[in-house]
Amino acid sequence: MKKNFLFNLLLSFSNILFPIISFPYVARILGPEGIGKVQFIFSYAQYFSVFAALGIPVYGIKEIAKYKGNPDKISSVFLSLSTIFFLTSLFAAILYFSSVILLPFFKDQQPMYLLAGAMVFLSFTYSDWYYAGKEDFKIIAIRSLVVKAIALILLYTWVKTAQDLYPYLAVLIFTIIGNQVYGFALVFVKDKQSFSSLALRTHIKPLLFIFGATAASSIYTVWDTILLGFLSNATAVGFYTASIKIVKLLLPFVTSVGAVAIPSLAHKFANNKLEEVKITIHDSFYFLVFLTIPMAIGIYILAPELIIIFSGKAFSASVIPMQILSLLPLLVGFGYLFAFQILIPAEKNKEVFIAMLAGLIISAAFNLILVPHFSEVGAACATIATEIGVTIIYYYYTRKYFQFDYPWKFFGQSLIAALLFIPVVLSIRALLDNIYLMATLSIIACTLLYGLVHLLVFKNIFLLKYLRRKKAIVND
């Protein structure tokens, strides 16, 4: 478990480091409009990939974990789900290419859309769910690092001028396809697979429900950008991309512990070990709250500086959307806890599907009303409203089926500690003109203040336990 956590943390760092190094460079070369055009094309293809996945990346982890120690059963699950994945990817690719070729909206950048279609057709090669189910996070982390390192080299080699939209899109596509194809091929190299025990029908019904979880999560990763592109323009997409890109950098930290815990939780739910589940959920709640509340407050206060540092002054219109989206780490974190660590491992797939439907309705309604009038600001408001709605529904179902206790007192303590960031940041901002130095000192000061308040004022036991655990991991 410790090694898996460390490798998953390494994966999270790689997912954060790549955009930190790449996006500031690209944003200053392509500008808001160029970024917006490429991001819309990339997001449009990604959305078809989400539907092609049919929830397999989530459902597959649970199914593989369920048969831990049974190689034949694991092989059957992998090949059955991969076959379904291939068929849905083929169907999604047909729909994608048909829309790109037939609809006038896509005519101007049609070659780029066609290139992005490779992501849709090759969706079935995504196999991280197989490794995660087997709790082999080492392969996932190392493979991701290698592919991202190559992508960075290609980015700095190919993208030189504001006209290099095609090369930038190609690099983004490579980060997806290169990683997936490499991992998929490795499955057959490392483990023996036999097509003699396919069981496609067994998985169809649960997949239709589990699909809801994936579609719900795609609301804030893909759906928002697509609606903004259709209802507004490429520049608005560029501003929105800059704002949400920074916020999303922190999300891997929020979900890293939960991702490692999913196989274990699935096994515990399957064997009705609810007391052990309660302990895991309790720890996840503490970790989630401890991280996401300071993230939300910090992003809101430092949004002006972060936008300029990360994207440049041309993206100043991204500040307000970023401040609105500062709630995302908190909302996504709670949604991930209730859905991916409780409802899905407990086989409550129908309930997750209902939450997804509600989320899609909320998202469509708010985007249609707000985006035509408020562009990227309206899209940010719609995203937050959607996440609030979906998370509330997840919470309702977890309370309905399980009597888990959550330490809400710790939530209040963390909020008080994080609100102290406001006078600290305002004071440093008044004293320093250099935004790089100001942002750096603010982050360091707020981090130290937050930890000290928890330790000295609230006598936080969880933090002390966590620090001891990290020390033990290092010593091992």
Q: Which structural traits does this protein have?
A:
mainly alpha; 18 helices; 476 residues; globular
* Total tally of structural domains: 1
- Poorly predicted residue ranges: none
**End-to-end separation:** 13 Å
Tally of DSSP helical segments? 18
Helix content: over 70%
Estimated share of beta-strand residues? under 5%
Would you tell me the structural class of the helices and strands?
Answer: mainly alpha
Outline the biggest β-sheet: none
Overall geometric form: globular
Mean pLDDT: 86
Output the radius of gyration. 22 Å
Oligomer: single chain
Total beta strands: 0
Task: List the secondary-structure elements in sequence, H or E.
Answer: HHHHHHHHHHHHHHHHHH
Provide an overview of this structure.
The protein has 18 helices and no strands. It is mostly helical. The protein has one domain. The longest helix is centred in the last third of the chain and has 53 residues, at 349-401. The radius of gyration is 22 Å and the shape is globular. The protein starts with a helix and ends with a helix. The mean pLDDT is 86.
Question: TL;DR?
Answer:
This protein has one domain.
Indicate the topology.
Blueprint: H1 2-53, H2 56-66, H3 71-102, H4 110-121, H5 128-133, H6 137-158, H7 165-190, H8 200-231, H9 234-249, H10 251-270, H11 274-311, H12 319-325, H13 328-343, H14 349-401, H15 408-419, H16 421-431, H17 435-457, H18 461-475
